[in-house]
Amino acid sequence: MSYFTIAGVQMHALHHGDNTEAMRHRVDALMTRFPQVQMVLFSELMPMGASPHHAQPLPSDTEAMFCQLALQHRIWLIPGSMFEQVGDHIYNTSVVINPMGQVVARYRKMFPFRPFEAGVESGSEFVVFDVPNVGRFAISICYDMWFPETTRTLAAMGAEVILHPTMTDTIDRDLELSIARTSAALNQCYFFDINGAGALGNGRSIVVGPSGDVIHQAGSGEQVMPIEIDLNRVRRERERGLHGLGQPLKSFRDRKVNFSIYASEGGSSPFLDTLGPLVKPARADLETPPEH
Predict the structure, then answer these.
(1) Is 212 in contact with 189 (CB distance < 8 Å)?
(2) How do residues 54-70 score in pLDDT, each as one tens digit?
(3) Inter-residue contact 83 to 54 (CB < 8 Å)
(4) N or C: where does the chain have the smaller number of CB atoms within 10 Å of the terminal CB?
């Protein structure tokens, strides 16, 4: 089977607090209206809001509720992400639940939005998972997309669909829309970039096809986006090229160059070391005007 229907959910929610019941209602209504949906994807930090103070160890009662919801509707469910407490550490973690209500993967965000996402640790393991008889899917979260190495690695692991919950409420959303399109084209895959609305994002979720084509772009308000994808399109374009032209994954595989920047510890370089610490910009002090 090459056809598969994924619904992205862009919804308003509390910035600090429990949004899980609202998410449950959205899924119930979605599945009543669009029973063909096989996977549901929410935005980053939707379940418990954007405060690390709501971090929980996993598994948790919250995760169990989502497992029951996935089983009830027999869907794959990615409820965005939530802060996970592991000892003294906090991670921004996305959970993948199958239609039997089982957690098949947990992905920890590799690139917290530092220096703004303070106190959150970086994950270190890529996550891909297979939907039987359909294809291979992968998870990345928000700021991860700004590092093309993350998406390229997932594609090299065979990912045909990148599921990308995000929480962007800042003025760089236009750039992220461009990055989503570019990521899909460079890696010849579907890219589902699902943002929150209101307090948890400025919306404009985007779903992109493997040629970088925009399948759907949402507005700034609430929206449910059931999209049927065709995995054979990914396979065909990876075989023959985007529009019968570029074949970037094959060219990357067959490259003659080794990227020296990645040979150094931590990927640093003499130039990068000159950029200074990773901190919030400070306000410039204004000089006191001369007295007249």
Answers:
(1) no
(2) 999 999 999 999 999 99
(3) yes
(4) C
Write the CB contacts of 265 (distance below 8 Å, at least 6 apart in sequence). none
Report DSSP letters for the chain, one per residue: --EEEEEEEE-B--SBS--HHHHHHHHHHHHHH-TT--EEE--TTTTTBS-GGG-B-SS-HHHHHHHHHHHHHT-EEE---EEEEETTEEEEEEEEE-TTS-EEEEEE-SS--TTTSTT-PPP----EEEETTTEEEEE--GGGGGSHHHHHHHHHTT-SEEEEE----STTHHHHHHHHHHHHHHHTSEEEEE--BGGG-----EEE-TTS-EEEE--SS-EEEEEEEEHHHHHHHHHH-GGGS--HHHHHHT-----GGGGSGGG--TTGGGS----PPPPPPPPPPPP-
Give 72-86 pLDDT, tens digit per residue: 999 999 999 999 999
The predicted model scores a pTM of: 0.95
- Mean pLDDT rounded to a whole number for the chain: 95
Q: Taken in order 176, 177, 179, 184, is the CA torsion positive or negative?
A: positive
Cis-peptide, bond into residue 59, ω within 30° of zero: yes
Which has the closest alpha carbon to 21: 76, 60, 79? 79
Give the separation between CA 247 and CA 186, rounded to whole angstroms: 9
pLDDT tens by residue, 176-221: 999 999 999 999 999 999 999 999 999 999 999 999 999 999 999 9
For residue 85, what are the β-bridge partners? 90
Q: Which residues pair with 59 in a beta bridge?
A: none
